[in-house]
């Protein structure tokens, strides 16, 4: 069963971004959790997902996405414009 943000975009009320983790690209490096611990966690299979509750600030989430060695995290603004990775 997929968790929040896995293979589909998710956002929360206080967020300025939408997040999607591409499961097939996630290699369980967990750098996203180190960079943005309020936003990301790993499921039982070691795949990153987006946590419920208050997320880290958008700039911190972007840094976490950029730190991912496989570019498994996609960030969009609330209008659906892709912020990372750049197109």
Automatic annotation (TrEMBL):
Domain of life of the organism encoding this protein: Bacteria
MF-aspect GO terms: iron-sulfur cluster binding; metal ion binding
Pfam families: Fer4_13
Keyword rRNA processing attributed: no
Keywords, sorted A to Z: Electron transport, Iron, Iron-sulfur, Metal-binding, Transport
Annotated InterPro entries: Fe-S_cluster_ET
Nucleotide-binding listed as a keyword: no
Protein name as catalogued: Ferredoxin
Organism: candidate division WWE3 bacterium
């Amino acid at each position: 069963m997929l968790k929040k943000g896995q293979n589909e975009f998710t956002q929360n009320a206080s967020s300025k971004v939408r997040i999607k983790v591409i499961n097939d690209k996630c290699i369980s490096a967990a750098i996203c959790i180190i960079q943005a611990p309020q936003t990301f966690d790993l499921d039982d299979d070691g795949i990153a997902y987006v946590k419920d509750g208050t997320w880290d600030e958008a700039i911190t989430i972007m840094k976490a996405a950029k730190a991912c060695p496989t570019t498994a995290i996609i960030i969009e603004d609330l209008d659906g414009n892709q912020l990372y990775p750049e197109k």
